[in-house]
């Protein structure tokens, strides 16, 4: 059985990598950190049915990549046999999360390991059943009895599912996915290949698990030398193997006599070490046989340990307990590699490399992110530790690697595991020479344009306007739903460094690492500390799944500053607001309750706008607000649009498209009958109201006070005089945002939307408008269908709003850039606007508002170097 281990560290500074154990075709994934999905192809990960996930703890560090991955699997009609194991609270967390992700959680079965392992697994109550069949999952949507029980009580939900599918399970294959089936008498996970022993190493404040993986003892192979000495004729070998013995010249030869010496079964330890308490607990753990015996041998330990704990006396004791042949793998990115061969790898990621080449041309607009990545250092003496210096007694048995995956390959058990570096994708992303000549040519054009009156006037105007408030705008993520190598999910940072004012607009998964790449560690911490407001425009996962990690890292940044004695920050200094729609309240609740304490102040768009829950009821009961009343014939055509996520049967396509968006009203057109459509809307409304009533305040006076506090905060901390949240045309509860600084500067951001008149009105005279431009002009119909805008629709809105500058963002992965070439059917006026005022965003594009006038030209230049499809890279 081919077994190998893949350790995926997608980012510098990542403390908890994703660890994939491949045993034959079976995959076991230990933790799943941010951007797992984004770099899946890059890391050559092929997901299959029946994956088992194991979480060491519940934290943004360990599971931020899991949720988008669950959604992706669901949309490919996979994940039906997947099981998710972890600390005790795991089950309650997902039970609560189902109210947000509802149907997408249904295939999965969850089980929280007991702190005191039970003698009999039948008594186990800490689990959730999953359903093994897509049609049944969609059927449950219309099952009132189920959805009523579902949100209240996991035992009821389990019992109901069991009753409902018991009969089908008897007739056909198993309709239920049950994580308990894999739990053995000892309370450990066990299948034909491995046994996974959960070890609680810390359970006071936070449940932390280590995992000991025990492999099967391999059958011994025949030893050629021994075989030779017996001189057995080839034709008798079959008989020999079958009967385990043979008679040759009147002498009995037993099979054992020609076999290799038996090897002990191998074990792998995955140790997520948060504190010294964890070390003390694991030293005393009886499940681990530290000394090699005939039966077992710990061949590798993966250490996820902060350096100050690595340096402790207890850690030395812990390491010394192992056999000298045990391999120690340190996945702490602050440890210097010492034992890995230096050849055959490149130092940085391709997207970092590419951005870097661009940075050399336009250092101001693309700060050198590689410098931050390559010379990743901290002032702290703890960092960049040589392993040999740290553990002289473990010399030659330790490995650390930062920034890329390691594959440990063992062709057969019993053989030492040889670390090999995985081969990088060697395709060239950019031809530097071609790029340089192209860039230089465009630079010449730029200089020429700078002499034009149009340019000079605009430049003078914007410099004048930004005299008192001149923030930098950083594009941290510019992709539509599916991130690509070059574009991460949506996030924009508006940052005034000298005033210590930071505002983040949307925060897709992986935003923290984009920030880290952009600024480097030390500055990133400062930026985080100065971040005062995060706006999450709507409840689509590509716009909000990164916020918990940002908030978590922000708390850490204050802690670090405090530890280093830099400054004491008051509670007021640490205060941050999150502005969000009601629909995100349950998700915030789950994160705050199970992952990390958020300690943020919340302001809901609807509360701010003076809506109440009844408005929401009414919203769901009236006809969906569509700017495109679609005709029957058009409907048919729309159904034929290929959905990039799905390749299965049409029925699944239909169902998945509507469930892929958290708010299903978008794909209303997919329903066969009015009745079905109504059913769906009622279902959505019911779920939403049920969720929200748990989280929202209904006291109007209190809400009024919240609004006043928020306004005051904006004025004092950010110099914002007025802020508006405008309902836009996308999914229910989607908003655009417009704010005006006391200096008069006005900035507007559309979020995701069809062209929206109300937004244009509120954004009138914006100094900068950031608008989504998901599609090129030739995909207008698709834009209508998916409730997004084309680049030209966005431009029309900007012109209508008399915006001074427009940046287009949120690009579909169907194309790597927007086509903004001159169109003869456009008016001269419009073409001029496009030329001087419109730019398209790229990840890590940065500019100071006063210098915007050069951005359209630089953006054009940079994008001209991109092929049309990301796949061409
Ligand atoms: Zn989006
Ligand atoms: Zn969206």
UniProtKB/TrEMBL annotation:
<dbReference type="GO" id="GO:0046872">
    <property type="term" value="F:metal ion binding"/>
</dbReference>
<keyword id="KW-0540">Nuclease</keyword>
<dbReference type="GO" id="GO:0042781">
    <property type="term" value="F:3'-tRNA processing endoribonuclease activity"/>
</dbReference>
<dbReference type="GO" id="GO:0005739">
    <property type="term" value="C:mitochondrion"/>
</dbReference>
<comment type="similarity">
    <text>Belongs to the RNase Z family.</text>
</comment>
<protein>
    <recommendedName>
        <fullName>ribonuclease Z</fullName>
        <ecNumber>3.1.26.11</ecNumber>
    </recommendedName>
</protein>
<feature type="region of interest" description="Disordered">
    <location>
        <begin position="657"/>
        <end position="678"/>
    </location>
</feature>
<keyword id="KW-0378">Hydrolase</keyword>
<dbReference type="InterPro" id="IPR047151">
    <property type="entry name" value="RNZ2-like"/>
</dbReference>
<keyword id="KW-0255">Endonuclease</keyword>
<keyword id="KW-0819">tRNA processing</keyword>
<keyword id="KW-0479">Metal-binding</keyword>
<dbReference type="InterPro" id="IPR036866">
    <property type="entry name" value="RibonucZ/Hydroxyglut_hydro"/>
</dbReference>
<keyword id="KW-0862">Zinc</keyword>
<dbReference type="GO" id="GO:1990180">
    <property type="term" value="P:mitochondrial tRNA 3'-end processing"/>
</dbReference>
